[in-house]
Amino acid sequence: MNIQLDLLARERMNLALLQNRIPLIQKLQIGNDTEDHLENLKLKIISDPQGVLSGEIAISSIPPGETFIVENPVISHSWDYFRNVTEKIRGRVLIDLLDAQGNTIAKTFQDLEIEPESVWLGQQAPLELLVSHIMPNSEVVQRINRKAADFLKELTGNSALSGYQSKDRERVYQTAQAIYQAIREKNITYSEAPASFEDTGQKIRTPEQILKHSMANCLDISLFYAACLEQAGIHSLVFIIQGHAFAGFWLEDKFLPRPLEEDAQFYRKRMELDEMAAIEITNATADINISFSQLESLGKDHFKNEENFICGIDVTHCRRHARIHPLNDSASLANRTTEKRELRKEEAELESRRFKEFQLPENVEAREKELDKWKDKLLDLSFRNRLLNFRPNKGTVEILCHSPNEIEDILADGAAFEILPEPRQSSLNLQRTDQQEILTDQITLNFERKKLLTKISETKFQAVLNSLYRSVVNAEEETGANTLFLALGILSWKETDRSQTERRSPLLLLPVNLRKKTVGGKFSLSLRDDDTVLNYTLLQKLKRDFDLEFPGLDPLPEDESGVNVQLIFDIIRKIIRDKRGWEVKEEVWLSEFSFQKYLMWKELDNHYEDMLKSPVIRTIMTSEAPKEIPEFVSEDKVEELLHPKDMYCPLSADSSQMAAVLSAANGNTFVLQGPPGTGKSQTIANMIAHCIGIGKRVLFVSEKKVALEVVYRRLQEIGIGPFCLELHSKKSEKKEVVKSFYNALEFNSDGLNGEWDQVSEELKTSRDGLNNYFRELHEISPSGISAYKAFGLAARSYDMPKVDLEFKSFLEYPLAELRELVSKLKNWEEFAESLTNEEYLAWATVQKKEWNSRTEDVIIQLLNKIHSLIKELERISADANHKLPLNPKWKIVNWLALGDFVDKILATPEITSGFLKQGDFPKYQSEFYENLEHLKNQAETRQKLEKIFQAKVFQENFYELKQQLQETREGFFLISFFKKLKLKGRLKNLIKDKLEPLEKYDQYFEAGIKYQEGLIKEEKASRFVKEAIGEEYQLTIDGKFRKAMAWAEDVNKDLLALYSSDFGTAASAKAFITTLVKNRSLALAESSEIKKELVQKHEFLIVMRTNLNLLKDELELKPECFEVKAAELAQKLEAIQNSFSLFRDVTTMNVLKSELSQAGLNPLFENVDKGEISKSNIYQVFNYNFHRQWLQEKSEDSNTLNSTTGLQLNKLDSDFKNLDLKYRAYTEKALSGKISADKPRMGNLILPDSPVGLIVKENKKSRRHLPIRKFLDSISSVAQTLKPCYLMSPMSVSQYLPVSPDFDIVIFDEASQIPPWDAIGALSRGKQAIIVGDTKQLPPTAFFSMKSEDESDEKIDCESVLEMFGSIYPEMLLKWHYRSRSESLISFSNHHIYDNRLNTFPASDTEDDKVSLMIVTGKEAFYDKGKSKTNVGEANAVVDEIFSRLKEESSTGSIGVVTFSSVQANLISDLIDVRLQKEPQFETFFDVNNPEYIFVKNLENVQGDERDLILFSVGYGKDSLGKISRNFGPLNNSGGERRLNVAVTRARNEVKIFSNFHPRELDVSTSTSEGLRLLKEYLLYAQEGHTALLRQQSFNNVDEFDSIFEKEVTDALRKKGWEVRTQIGVGGYRVDLGVVHPEYSGRFLAGIECDGARFHSAKSARDRDILRQMVLEGLGWAILRIWSTDWWYDSGKCIDKLHQELEALLAAPREAIKKAVKDIAIPDSIAENENSNSQENEMDVLQENLPPVVNSQLYDPTMLEINPIGEFFENANLVSNQMKGLVQALAPVSREECFSKVSRSWGFARRGNRIDQFLETCSKGIHRTKSNGQIFFWNTPEDVGSIEALRLPPEGQQRHPSSIAPEELLHGFTPILQSNIEVSKDLLFKEVAKMLGYSRISKENMKYMEPALELLKNQDMLTTEDEVVLWRG
């Protein structure tokens, strides 16, 4: 295969290059010279030795004859390999090109030398990489600097190495000396440097190596010294000359603007200014100590021989900007032993030196010293100025006339002259001797007819006048001033009497208008309504050089028709009469002059002190700070600062614009950066309106006419135009000025009657409602959560477990703690993932938090033991022969309880089995204890009584005894006495011992009473107890009875606990206990089988309990761990045993779990441990519930979120939009009413001598009005109220306004192109200034200068007033880009120039590429480098494009042409004029009076302009030999990127670039021009689209979401069948979701905005709710909105509503859809008439006019029917057969049409990815071809070459060329070509489009016909030349 594989790579490589990202391979080029289309290729990059580097690059395809280039491919390097290289290694880079099967089809290689990292490669690598060998962090450097600090301490008393902190050059110099002395002390010996080291490099010693061996050459020691300086904070330099190196340093805190400088003079000048010093540091190795001043002198000498000087490298720039970092190999040497060497013993001294004292140019005081320079710039008294040295050239026209005075008089009377070329003389006249008289007669005759003859021949007349006309128009647009004057009279003079050079200077300058009616038509000349002026520049020159004064000329003398020209001439003649060689010549010349800057000079020269009255000028010129600096308004505060009724901004404004407006109104002076298309003019108009509204006067200044006009037009639109005075260009005519003031007097404003206040209040209420909602929605709580986020994460529809977390407050939970908590939870989750669910549930019972090996060994033993015990337990459970009933369903805790139960059984007391028969044992037990207690009480009472009384007492009645005792205490004492005797006698018979006092027996009688009362119950109780226990109650065995019942209680409980779940087992157990109780002695005898069994079980269960308790203690098991069955416990323990290697992880998990549980997650872990929540979902569940509970808490605090629904928000949003429109309309009326209320009223009492009377008087005049300056001075008292705003150019400010800060604010636009000297005068008129511009756009420049006699194209950029202000005042930035209708138009600049700071908006096209590149070929398509410096081929292509667009009915946009050079612009303009003479119907498009006329401009004067379509002619490029010079004019120079930025940002809709070379042919690898590099990038961007822009795309193929909310909406829409793309756009603003139109895949059906982060990021309600949607809808979007509150509440309802809205958009009328997509370059974009009736009529005509097509057939896919059966996705075979049948009937048929036909037949209204993938699978096996991105299906491969006809659509239908295979489409071309032989390509394509049913075809869609034409060309059937097709047959 003939495949060319070329490799461009470096021949040497080392770690330094690798570390600093210098690519090894610079370019790989693959040329496909075969006839095959190479696809799926792979470039494989390897190395020899292996592993050094590797890489693979996939290449999708390379068409035949094309070349694929890869620049700087990404390669993987082995850092370790490069780091370990100690000596040079030779190797190779091997490149293999592999095909799809992995076969090598081409290969190449390049030898490579791999050097150690210590080797500097010299000029074989970027020289600045030398800085990587400077190692300031070396330990040796630290030691040197410590010694230097000691020297400084000793000699100066201050040891600080403080760099530039002291701002003292002397201290820097001392520090450098001290470092030198410290190095010198080390006694280093000089070593000769390798020969030519500056070319080939050398191995460089590190600081450690230098001191280790005490050896260094010049480069080593220079780098060592530079490292020490850098460490000390001093900016060091390294200089390289032929064969030598030395060092230097900056004495001031500066560094170079670039890494290195090759100009020796550059350094000499700075050393002469004492800004830097160069040191011959090699002498640090000399045996003789040389003073530091001598070292400096020797260093300075090296700069004298410029031929030997190579470069100086600035270390600081390389570090900070080039990011060249030190190599890190000193660490490996740090610990090596240093050879001991005796130190030099020298006395250290620090020399002092005097430094030149002067103020730095940056100081403000120096700016005052620049005044003289500024004056020189304004008043050019050199002979480059044509006002002093006027010479005829191509821009001058000599007028033939007899009397300049008469011309002035006629013009002053309002007449106009026609300008004619030099009269042609007849052959007879040419032979006569009185030719001069004949010419005189001709001049006179024509003059009488108001015609002026010139000296221009007829052949050159049109070209010269056209060129002059274009130049005048351009100058007026650029400067806002007229530059065309009729020069009356020429002063011929000499500089000295002996001078042979005649100087010619014009005297009087009449401002005139040059008009032309048609191209090639007549030119007329008329006087502008402006003042005639004297050549003041000449007068100043004569005064300065010759001390000549010209009295009587100020003011100029007048006659009845204007100025008295003759008198002026005579005055001048009288003054110069004694001057030899001086003369006034009465010549008349028409030319361009710029004298207005004289006035700027004059006021700067004479009124500087007055200028300083302006605070702005005072700050600039004297550095005097303002007394008070007002506060700037931030973007997010623009709606909070003022009530709507206090703002006067009628025009729509975003937050960045409003911040600028309000900051200006606050009194701030600042720079307003306005990148292209960000609405500068609209912002300025709002700024002016608001400032006027609050009572301020505004002066708006711009040199650009278009800027002034645009702002005025906006002010006019909002109703305050009458109060604004335009004083620039033609607006500075006296009559216009007077009329403007008179109109302001007459203006009357309608009242508002309170509507303004009402609407303002309603707007505020509506706006606040929306803002409050969004504030609440996006307000971040201390926990870092917003309601929006919570809505997305905790939607009600989520199927998520609800767990109530235990936090005191969710809203107030600290974010840091939440993050820490989440981190711990995720860590826990990661640990948990290492366990299976079974293992986790087993380990979940383990709470152990510490691990040690002893514990692990113990646990393993226990697990083994317990494993065998459980097996035994299972055996016992399964044994059916046991006496004691067992329940196999028992849990471990039951078995352990059984042990206790058995223990109780073995201790069975004497008791009956009655308790087992009780249904209600607690009641029985209570009754037992009650009876037992009674028996006990009875027995104790009897026992107590028996101690006192005899047994017979119980026969007595204790109640009677007590009664008898009571009677002894009553009645007469004698009776009482006898009663006591009686009682005592009775007691004596009853008591055992002697009688006690009667009172003591009272208690016994009471006890006896109770005893006798309880005897009946005692009998019953005795029976009850006996039945329960089996024996009689006795007090002595009361405890026995109680124990027996307690045992019964325990047994009963155990029975319930163990057996209650199984009635059968429970009955058996009761029977067993009954038997045991009844036969207690036998059953529990030692020989009893029952006892043996019980003992065995008891012992086993004790062992088991012991081991389980040990395990529980060791693992700290949960209390409920044994509440499982034996098998389950065995399973868990086995799981633990099997995963015991994770024990340590489990302990870590438990620590985390404990901390998390304490924090509030305990309920969550409880659910996880129960298995109710998956451990893998714990974070997800936590996240959901935390946000759910956060929302609950938030809703309790916020009524706004609780009560606001989507319907309410939509209503609020709609109301806000309507009120905003209404408010802005009322603002206009309020503003005009406020201004007009203060102006004077027209009436009958106006005095003629008053200012108002003067205005009325002047307005009545038809001519000879007062000069404007005098008029303004006369009416100054009313001018402020009538005209609170002036719009002027800088020149007109100086011309018409006094030097006084009469204006509150000066707004200066397009300031990047204005030098300070041009702006200073205008700025002095204000107390405050707003400087508007863009530092990324054009600077002030002298390039393309037209006003100088020197026609050089040299460019001199200078500081702009914008940059000057930017260094003093703060800046604000306009961020929203509005101009581009396609984001691709601004994306390049936004990315490369503005660092993506602009908010750009995506278009509604899915493929947004409106920047295209046309490669122009042909004989004339070359850059004429040596001669005209034009490219004729390009110019013709541009002109053809213009007229082709004008002829297209569908093309209605405006057009602009931009060129790189003025000569190319002139050529295109000339070609347009030639074309217009042939096609005059298009002249109106080029008329400069048309606001959107077609302009042709070069780079330097296109700033501020914009058009729908910009045609960009590069001009430069390949010369006639095919070579590309890298000279691209202004683009090559510094600031070239700013010029390119201006050029590429002028378009609203489209940019088309014309070039004669492909982008990759332009080699910029060796160019330092940023402009040239960006040009190549831009051309690539135009060719490849967004893929060239960092491989970004206008939409993302990979989904990106800002929130889970967006993802869920996307997923739900896709389930509904919609194709959804996310994050549409490449700039600052992106549409959240885009739904692709199912029928027009190149367009989005709708954009969907979620009220998320991007929505909330809007700084104001207008940004959020009005502007975004307005801009997007303007770009073709239909925007639908979905509210997060609604989604959270009912997502299903939301998605259904969204689906319905999309369906409604889809069902829109077809005509509307066609209209919406007419400009999109997709198959459906061929223009169609919207009116169906007219379309049908047009089709009839078209069909009649179709060329004869013999070989045509009918193509009607509607005749085919496809019948769906069953489910689509389940019938692959059926669908496949249907597709094959479709192909068989229609082949060739496009895949798109085939898929659409099948899918619609199956009922799908639109196709998504799933349907396409399914159809693709079904279509496998069908033969296919590919052309221009389209795929076509064929029956067989043989059919491809056998097509014989183009099938046409049925009448009234259409067939798009993109759906037709080229092999078929070419048959539409052949009959036309056969009949006509030669046809233009455009016409041929249009005729074939007519055959296919279209009346017109767009340029974009012609590309689908190109492949068919190429097929015919490849068959040698035709050729093409200059877009013309020639038939060869």
TrEMBL record:
Residues 818-879 form a coiled coil. InterPro entries: DNA2/NAM7-like (IPR045055), DNA2/NAM7-like_C (IPR041679), DNA2/NAM7_AAA_11 (IPR041677), DUF4011 (IPR025103), P-loop_NTPase (IPR027417), Papain-like_cys_pep_sf (IPR038765), Restrct_endonuc-II-like (IPR011335), Restrct_endonuc-II-like_dom (IPR049468). Residues 1605-1702 form the Restriction endonuclease type II-like domain. Residues 1370-1556 form the DNA2/NAM7 helicase-like C-terminal domain. Residues 654-726, 1260-1343 form the DNA2/NAM7 helicase helicase domain. The keyword Transferase does not apply. Keywords: Coiled coil. The keyword Coiled coil applies. It comes from the Bacteria. PANTHER family: DNA2/NAM7 HELICASE FAMILY (PTHR10887), HELICASE SENATAXIN ISOFORM X1-RELATED (PTHR10887:SF495). This is DUF3320 domain-containing protein.
